[in-house]
Design brief:
Blueprint: E1 5-7, H1 14-21, E2 26-28, H2 30-49, H3 73-83, H4 94-101
């Protein structure tokens, strides 16, 4: 991936976004990845301990006090993503979706 650009929070230039729009590949800055991994470890610890945390192992809104069993947590998180994935109108062009994902 010699032409891959590294994405760092707050440091993405217009040139980087153009390259991504035009199909260039990217990597996530290693320090950013370490921060994401550390945050994921916190969530794993919470789940392991069983402490109730809104939206992690409880329901949402009126169901905030509803405990979600450990074997259903992946389903909860998938359903959260799916519930926010609805939209109206035409699908976005692939290049725009790439930018949003990056």
């Amino acid at each position: 991936m010699a032409d891959a650009v590294s994405i760092e929070p707050g440091k993405a230039s217009l040139d980087i976004w153009r390259r991504l729009y035009n199909g260039g590949s990217f990597t996530i800055d290693r320090r950013s990845k370490a921060a994401v991994d550390a945050a994921a470890d916190v969530i794993v610890g919470i789940v392991r301990e069983g402490a109730p945390v809104y939206g992690v192992n409880t329901g949402f809104g009126k169901l905030a006090n509803a405990e979600i069993k450990p074997d259903q947590l992946a389903v909860l998180q998938k359903n959260l993503i799916l519930s926010h994935a609805a939209g109206v109108g035409d699908a976005l062009p692939a290049q725009i979706v790439r930018l949003i994902m990056a």
